[in-house]
Amino acid sequence: MALGIRCIRAGCHYSGKECVLWNECPIFQADTGLAKKQSAKKDIPRPTEDDVQAAVVEYCDLMHIVCVHIPNESKRSQSYGAKMKRMGLRKGFPDLFIPTARQGFHGLFIELKRDKKSRVSAEQKAWVVYLNEHGYRATICYGADEAINEIKNYMEIK
After folding, report:
1. Rounded-to-integer distance, Cα 69 and Cα 71, Å
2. N or C: which terminus of the chain has fewer CB atoms within 10 Å of its end residue's CB?
3. Order of strands across the sheet with 96-98?
4. What is the pTM of this model?
5. Which range of residues forms the domain containing residue 26?
């Protein structure tokens, strides 16, 4: 679509004429900085941990694998948090548990992170070590794909 823009770029075969490709012209884009803007990588929104966890649980449901969520992540009032602690909730405990014995383990615990940018707390690391020392398979997975692959390996699904 011609917009009446006359090309003044040296070396362009439209030089001095109305340019019909100005928005695709590498010379024009380099001069104006448009090339960087147009080729810039689009920001892909990061999934939430809830989205990742829902995908993993959905996979388990489809495969008829019992998978339990330990609700340890939400913000609570101080009084409710104290009550939950008295009832046995522990900081850093893994998000998901598959209570099926396989490969010499009593069950599989997964601390789920939404992606590699997510931080693992000292308490989460300590729980993974503790559970692995006590006959469970415990791991930290980054993203739904990694968690599903861990479950497939644990459950020996090809």
Report:
1. 6
2. C
3. 68-69, 96-98, 108-113, 137-142
4. 0.70
5. 1-40
**Are residues 71 and 133 part of one domain?**
yes
3-state SS track over the chain: CCCCCEECCCCCCCECCECCCCCCCHHHHHHHCHHHHHHCCCCCCCCCHHHHHHHHHHHHHHCCCCCEECCCCCCCCHHHHHHHHHCCCCCCCCCEEECCCECCECCEEEEEECCCCCCCCHHHHHHHHHHHHCCCEEEEEECHHHHHHHHHHHHCCC
Single out the residue of 100, 89, 82 nearest to residue 137, CA to CA. Answer: 100
pLDDT tens sequence across 10-58: 666 556 666 655 555 655 554 444 444 544 556 778 888 899 999 999 9
The alpha carbon dihedral of 79, 80, 81, 87 has a sign of positive
Count of structural domains within the chain: 2
Q: Which two tokens stand for residue 79?
A: 């009084």
Q: How many CA atoms lie within 13 A of 37 on its CB side?
A: 9
C-beta separation of 18 from 10 below 8 A: no
